Amino acid sequence: MTATIQDAARPFSGTALTALVPPSTRLLGLGEPTHGVDAFPELRNELFRHLVEEEGYRSIAIESDCLSALLVDAYVTDGIGTLDDVMARGFSHGFGASPANRELVRWMRAHNAPCPPSERLRFYGFDGPLEITGAAAPRQALLALRGYLAPHLAPDLDAALNDDATNDALDALLGSDDRWTDEAAMMDPARSVGRTREARELRLIADDLGVLLAAHAPHLTAVTSADDFWRAELQARTATGLLRYHAAMAGTGPTRFDTLVTLRGAMMADNLDAIVRREARRGPTLAFGHNRHLQRDESDLRLGGRSARWWSAGAVVGTRLGDQYAFAATTFGSRGADVPPADTLEGIFSTLPHDRAVIDPGRLATLVEGKPAPRVPADHTYFSLDPSAVEQNDAVVFVKEI
């Protein structure tokens, strides 16, 4: 019997997907090829339920603001706040409007209600407080970090920083948040405050506060809690990451956009790394975001007529975790009149009988004759699979029509 593409595919299910990832996996990345299409987060919800109920997963991290996500986590773990409020304030990128995200949060809260605290599912954001149009001010992260340290390290804080990190001093250096969040700075470096004297001083202060946090970890975890200390580390990473990002926004070199997406990827990778370490004793984590943020191969993007290349969060964290990181890319066939040509991967996958399929990239390579052509989508917000890099994925999830 001649082998065909069907021999590399199975109907989508959680079991079919996890059969392709290493048993050592601690972080499973599930990508989506475009944002704003609920078919992909709906598929994610189905997978996450399977992972929780059958595979021992206890957390999910999505491509959303890591600080805002604390509100969502407080709701799903302890019932703090209301569903409407956390959907409005707990997500970035407009993701709070997604019905699938709302259903995820509702289901997690219902699942957690009867569980003891140690078994409750946790919700994380792994993106920085960043949007495609700019970045947040570092105020929230810096003041929260200082507020955590001050009651327990007052003498060390004053000696290390010479009163430069009092709330009043930080307020004076920060100025108005509008200066930091000016969207015009994304395209006009002259509008950025990231390389002003005040910003440079804030970067030194953030670094010093982070060192104090790390150096006094044994004392701080004893007098507060491991969870409080973890959140303080998150604030420290975010403060330094935002100040670094704002400095890059003020840059004028030819690789400015490459630097910005590289820094964002590094922030994402650090957050994912910290989540995996925090969850190590509880179970693996599902990460959900754009394919470009979770793939192992080098990512590329065109923005405002300019192109950028960078190593994504998945590529970076994958080098740290080794076979503890697995990645499943998602793609689709038809979207209205946008039908993939027959000689593309998406065109080949469209011949499968399944509406949703899980494909083994290793077997796929032996079954496809020649080199498939890259798909050129009609929709610029969709990024097709790179045929030359598909074997770097542990699995491919295909949705025939959206």
From TrEMBL:
It comes from Streptomyces ficellus. It holds the Pfam family Erythro_esteras. One of its GO terms (biological process) is response to antibiotic. This is Erythromycin esterase family protein. Transmembrane segments: none annotated. Gene3D superfamilies: EreA-like, domain 2. SUPFAM superfamilies: EreA/ChaN-like.
